[in-house]
Specification:
disordered C terminus; 2 domains; about 260 residues; DNA polymerase, domain 1; 11 helices; alpha/beta; Nucleotidyltransferase, domain 5; single chain; about 10% strand
Length: about 260
């Protein structure tokens, strides 16, 4: 999908991008070979050629942030297939709904071939440094919840430059509601061992742990890890569905999308 993307090029919006696809211009190579194109005739040929060369260079160098700065936030999902190994899936547990009326208790990061959980009072302070290795962050409602909580907890936190919030990605696909509801509707995700546990239970489990129950903490961590790990197959499904929706009848295979 990324090589079929033109929105990051100056002067190209959704309508022009769709017109390029409809004209048979399916990737950057096609566009470079047909300059100047009638669909982008307002952009000087040499400028467009320079931007296409910069796109190829950023892709070759694995610079996800370069594309993130140029794409609308709502289109950051297009980066995932090419940068999957640099993507961090994240979910947090808290004792309240506001960063000013609760604390972060457990955070799990899934990505780079491992799943790592961080616990308040044990190793939570290591989270900011751990996140710096990932240029892409994936959450569910993280723009409104997880990230503000983490920023309040760690004022010096530098969040990954690309953020894919699956709540809004799925809303675009016509699926609203919470994470578990979407998992159930799509038949995606594994909650073995934490069936029936929800947000209020997470608060209760933390309180039980603080009263001395290590078993409660273990259950809380398992629940948080399920919330986090399940984001990956959900994003795979969402990117596939959005790509088919966008490219439509001209969505022939594109090498290295």
């Amino acid at each position: 999908m990324l090589r079929a993307t033109f929105l990051h090029l100056p002067g190209i919006g959704p309508a022009t991008e769709a017109a390029l696809w409809q004209d048979g211009i399916r990737d950057w190579k096609d566009l470079a070979g047909r300059l100047p194109s009638g669909s982008v005739r307002t952009l000087p040929k040499e400028n467009l050629a320079r931007e296409l060369a910069a796109s190829e260079r950023a892709l070759r160098e694995g610079d996800a942030a370069w594309f993130g700065r140029r794409l609308p936030d709502s289109e950051h999902w297009r980066l995932y297939p090419r940068f999957a190994e640099k993507t961090a899936f994240l979910d947090i547990e808290t004792t309240g709904l506001s960063p000013y009326a609760g604390i972060v208790t457990v955070v799990t990061v899934h990505g780079g071939g491992r799943t790592q959980s961080f616990i308040a009072g044990e190793d939570l302070e290591e989270l900011p440094a751990y996140l710096r290795r990932f240029p892409i962050l994936v959450t569910f409602n993280g723009r409104r919840f997880d990230v503000p909580f983490l920023e309040a907890c760690f004022p010096s936190l530098v969040a990954p430059p690309v953020h894919i919030d699956l709540r809004f990605v799925f809303y675009r696909l016509g699926l609203a509601g919470g994470l578990k509801r979407i998992e159930e509707r799509l038949g995606i995700g594994d909650r073995t061992g934490v069936e029936g546990i929800h947000g209020l239970d997470a608060v209760r489990l933390w309180q039980e742990y603080r009263r001395g129950s290590r078993a409660a903490l273990d259950q809380l961590v398992r629940y948080n890890r399920a919330d986090t790990v399940n984001l990956e197959p959900l994003l795979v499904r969402a990117t596939s569905d959005l790509e088919r929706r966008l490219l439509g009848p001209w969505s022939l295979p594109i090498a290295g999308t």
